[in-house]
Amino acid sequence: MSEFQLLATAASGLEAIVGKEIKRLGYTPQVENGKVFFKGDKLAIARSNLWLRTADRVKIVVGEFKATTFDELFEKTKALPWENFFTIRCGFSCFWEIC
Question: pTM of whole model > 0.85?
Fold first, then answer.
């Protein structure tokens, strides 16, 4: 995978500043409440983690879907392309957000 959908989280009110920092790094920000989306490669992940001063975290968006039950959440999460990010021996944690 050469390009990733990235998400920089930000404290309320700082999203525009994070967007400006992302733009200064050469990426195109899409500012929303509490977060800024942008696309980039592995270098963008490293650069944004090093140089974004007002972002809380930089995350990779693996997928998006709506789930109304735990079983639906489990099945849709299982169907995501995890093989693009992890080997068989890797572990990870996941979290969810109500939108």
Answer: no
Among the residues of 1-99, which ranges form H helices?
A: 15-24, 42-51, 70-78
**pLDDT digit string (tens) for 52-81?**
999 999 999 999 999 999 999 999 999 999
Q: Smallest Cα–Cα separation from 53: which of 10, 6, 12, 5?
A: 10
For the residues 22-31, what does the mean pLDDT come to?
98
Instruction: Output DSSP code: residue 34.
Output: T
CA 98 and chain centroid, separation: 16
Q: Report domain 4-60's class.
A: alpha beta
CA distance linking residue 88 with residue 98, whole number of Å = 29
CA–CA gap between residue 4 and residue 40 (Å, rounded): 5
Q: Which two tokens stand for residue 40?
A: 């980039």
